[in-house]
Amino acid sequence: MIIYRDRKTLLHSVDPRLKIIWLIFFTLAVAVFRTPEVAVAATLANLLLLLLSRIRVDEFLRDSREILLFSLLAIPLQVLTNPYGLEAGLRLGLLNSVLLADMAAAALMFVSTTLPSGMADAMRWFRVPKALAFSFSLAIQFVPVLYREVQDVRMAQMTRGARLSGPMSVFPLIIPVFHKVMNRAWELSVSLESRGFSP
Predict the structure, then answer these.
(1) What is the pLDDT of residues 141-174, one digit of tens each?
(2) DSSP H helical segments within the chain, as ranges?
(3) Which of 110, 116, 129 lies closest to 60 in space, CA to CA?
(4) Sequence spans of domains, the chain
(5) How far apart are CA 5 and CA 59, in angstroms?
(6) pTM
């Protein structure tokens, strides 16, 4: 789950503007210089940041599990589309997979060590429209709320005897979760409007 993890570390106290600059620089460097050396350097940089953040490895892997699995899709994609044979496709696919995972890990590290309010302030400093900055920070804060709603609905359905296993288990959750999320969004919009909020 992509959430802010509160720790008293130097990395958490770094100005969000510096973190955004670092993230942009990191992402561009990885995307432009796609070499094994860059992949190794980016992976080591992420490991160093993880160490400095004092976020447990198992927590980080649990948060990034789906993203890291998605990055593995680069391997079969390159194997199927590379015109230079299976071996070249495997090498390029593995490299692209590691680079994608590095970029995703850096972004997740940014979110895990930066308060949503700090992100919004930094985005406004970079002249991002206030409405967009507010929407982004609000979306980040909504992730744990959505996760809790899914867990609550899942437990409620299981107490009613629903069998929630396998790929089809998501369908009994969609409508109740959607209904609860829409209710929360409506309550939030009414609350903001009653306070005269105007981004």
Answers:
(1) 777 777 778 778 878 877 877 666 666 666 777 7
(2) 10-13, 16-32, 36-53, 57-71, 74-81, 86-113, 116-125, 130-159, 171-194
(3) 110
(4) 10-114, 128-194
(5) 10
(6) 0.75
